[in-house]
Amino acid sequence: MKQLEPVRVGLLGLGTVGGGVVNVLKRNQSEIARRAGRGIVVTHAAARETNFPGVDTAGIETSTDAFAMVERPDIQIVVELIGGYEPARELVLRAIASGKHVVTANKALIARHGNEIFAAAQKKGVMVAFEAAVAGGIPIIKALREGLAANRIEWVAGIINGTTNFILTEMRDKGRAFADVLAEAQKLGYAEADPTFDVEGIDAAHKLTILAAIAFGIPLQFDKAYTEGISVITPEDVGYAEQLGYRIKHLGITRRTEKGIELRVHPTLVPERRLIANVDGVMNAVLVKGDAVGPTLYYGAGAGREPTASAVVADLVDVTRTLTSDPGNRVPHLAFQPDCLSDIPLLPMEEVETAYYLRMRAADRPGVLADVTRILADSGISIEAVVQKEPDPAAREASVIMLTHRVPERRMNEAIARIEALDTIAGKVTRIRLETLAAN
Amino acid sequence: MKQLEPVRVGLLGLGTVGGGVVNVLKRNQSEIARRAGRGIVVTHAAARETNFPGVDTAGIETSTDAFAMVERPDIQIVVELIGGYEPARELVLRAIASGKHVVTANKALIARHGNEIFAAAQKKGVMVAFEAAVAGGIPIIKALREGLAANRIEWVAGIINGTTNFILTEMRDKGRAFADVLAEAQKLGYAEADPTFDVEGIDAAHKLTILAAIAFGIPLQFDKAYTEGISVITPEDVGYAEQLGYRIKHLGITRRTEKGIELRVHPTLVPERRLIANVDGVMNAVLVKGDAVGPTLYYGAGAGREPTASAVVADLVDVTRTLTSDPGNRVPHLAFQPDCLSDIPLLPMEEVETAYYLRMRAADRPGVLADVTRILADSGISIEAVVQKEPDPAAREASVIMLTHRVPERRMNEAIARIEALDTIAGKVTRIRLETLAAN
To answer: Does the beta-carbon distance from B27 to A291 stay under 8 Å?
Structure first.
């Protein structure tokens, strides 16, 4: 090996992921240097804490002054692991201004401020790498930006939040209710004390925003993502879906259509024979459909100390390799050259077309089903399957479950409003979108 | 976009994959140029044929003189799609000597002559890219070499031959016999007229040899791969495996152990709940276990015109990007710097340790099972499960199926020889290896 000086790295944040980065770089230092052609060492870390359990900080100068660290002349790459919008944004911009390359695991930061950050990096000729921001250890950014570079990407559908996938898996395996499983997930450390970010799909929308940008060559537009959580899903729906041959997964979906690009996170019925329907527990998976390659799927741990560190360190190796390349010939941040981004609009959710699972409670009386199917027919909605469950004798109500063909969301909303207005229908209609995720 | 001249490419071979490369480059030319920062055009092609159905050869100068083409001064990258050892090897070496970068889809060539070819390329400062050589359109080479660069890879297990996966899937779904499905696969074009290469695992061993080299940083050693085909698998075995909760898959497995590296292709029982057990038909999937990231899986089409072209064109984009990089800082051919390869030995199959599925026909007499289990116990082989099937009254024989714990192959071979020598056991013992592919 040529005896190049090791690359010097400064960490912002030395918590779970930061500690993982230090540990992986030390444990695998010879393996990594054999690959990268030179060593990669963490020489500095800035963190609020002063005590780092489970992390070997030997050789690392720690301080609490993050702003001083990002401007040190003796580090070449800054790794941002603070999370959140500020001061992460300010620190990353200062690191860039000071000529540092940046590696970050911060999906919120990239989804919301990525356009500004990448423009600054482009101008300065430095790189901002963010493999760890989406789906943890799965190299999905690399697969989309480079591995599938030959393709016109048609759509991407991913299980990109481990918390919601764990909850849905437990609901199915054990017939348990959402709130019940959530409480357990919080106890196990799979869910935060305030679970809104995960459970309502905001975290998934951050990641999906990034995937959409690099799949289609569009700017990051987090504000336009449609987001729906899993707290509305009941064990009944999970069970009925199963009986019909489907699993309910919380998917992030982005699709190129003639009218615009869909960008949406919501619970989704998926045929049980699809590989992605069988991704269980806290694991993540991203299914990508390219015009040449067809469907490809990428599966692995979407979070956790070492899986996330795996992605951060892969980025460090990539950045190390390109230190001597012509900046104009690097892989562009958003896969497409910055002056070649597309202005295809994002499609409002009302214009998105999907199939649907509907569940309603209907009076146990003749003619009810006829009323409902008439409303659907009037709206041009074709029915794929109807299941009527034995009525509950006490309530004198029966559950009716329907699967429909594809229809624009606006038309389905109108039909549901008319169905809910029927005297014979009790309460709200449960509506869950259904995607076949077929190869064609 | 900066107005760089397009990169000029010459194709060796303009058949199925070559035609796919031309079509994908033309159809997606703007998408690809927006990513790569410059155009990539096929300007020359050398092929035996002079007629190219389904391929738009406008703008391509075709000839039958491959040797002249690889030395043309007006092309920068040669794409080798001839297949086989010679003249592919000679042409690739001449292209390198003439200063061309090379992209190839030729697994046989790389598995057998890769060490020589990479050494020549290294010396000349050019790249040889081979993403299409393993698992078609799945970017597994990139994932292993770059995406998982932080990891000490522990093992890789892959369905890397679509023909055998199609046959095993049909055998399971329809209870059909091997020979019967093979004949159908040949009719459908999924299997060659001479199916030996696929069915006996030689094609998979080529690909596995490449995966092992880049996973562990060892030279390519195809001659040391252990290879066993699927022609021995019967519908009975498929059915019994299913009853026990397993699927039979034809896997290529390479694993790092303390004693050496395993490199083996053979039918394998895999727990049905593993994602890879649910990869059906002609699709491929590769499961990689890294020490930091844990298990990750990559799934997609392993062959076919456009999936293979997807990988070839991704390599063209990669090569185009690194045209201006320092050769010393490129991704090394075998993932590790050429002077840092490891000399860990490959492990002979007799020393490999796996669990086993055994099936034998035993006389319907008391004491037979006791004799068999005594022999296994004497060899230190623990039994995980035993199933005795109702005896066939006519034959007065019963099928006995056993799953064992892990044991070195040599000891299992000895035990099987002793079991087969028993008077009460008819014919050969069927032996299929079993892997749990557990995360830990």
So the answer is: yes
Low-confidence ranges of chain A (pLDDT < 70): 1-3, 440
Distance CA A297, CA A290 (A): 11
Distance of CA B91 to the CA centre of its chain: 24
d(CA A128, CA A94): 13
Q: What ipTM was predicted for this assembly?
A: 0.96
Contact A360, A380 (CB under 8 A): no
Give the N- to C-terminal CA distance of chain B in Å, as an integer.
48
Distance between CA atoms of residues B237 and B403, nearest Å = 12
From the list A138, A313, A325, which residue is nearest B150 (CB)? A313
Q: Is the pLDDT of residue B395 over 90?
A: no
Chain B residues closer than 8 Å to A278 by CB: 275, 278
Q: Do A252 and A265 contact (CB within 8 A), yes or no?
A: yes
**What digits encode the pLDDT tens for the residues B198-254?**
999 999 999 999 999 999 999 999 999 999 999 999 999 999 999 999 999 999 999
Question: Which of the residues A296, A320, A342 would you substitute to probe the B interface, choosing the one with the greatest number of B C-beta atoms within 10 Å?
Answer: A296
DSSP secondary structure letters along B173-240 = HH---HHHHHHHHHHHTSS-SS-HHHHTTHHHHHHHHHHHHHHHT----GGG-EE--STT--HHHHHH
Q: What is the pLDDT of residues B3-22, one digit of tens each?
A: 689 999 999 999 999 999 99
B146:A314 CB<8 A: yes
Run of H or E including A146: none
Chain B neighbors of A328, CB-CB under 8 A: 2, 37, 324
What's the Rg (C-alpha) of chain B? 24
Subunit contact A36:B149, Cβ cutoff 8 A = yes
Integer CA distances (angstroms), A385 to A12, A270, B24, in order:
54, 15, 39
Active site residue B207: yes
Q: A434 vs A354, A357, A389, CA distance in Å?
A: 6, 6, 20
Instruction: Flag whether pLDDT at B440 surpasses 70.
Output: no
How many CB pairs (< 8 A) connect A and B?
Answer: 243
Residue B51 to residues B14, B42, B146: CA-CA distances in angstroms?
Answer: 9, 17, 39
Contacts of A1 in chain B (CB under 8 A): 337, 339-340
Q: How far apart are the C-alpha atoms of A80 and A13, rounded to whole Å?
A: 7
Please say whether the beta carbons of B128 and B91 come within 8 A. Answer: no
Q: Which domains does chain B have, with CATH numbers?
A: 7-139+306-340 (3.40.50.720), 142-301 (3.30.360.10), 353-434 (3.30.70.260)
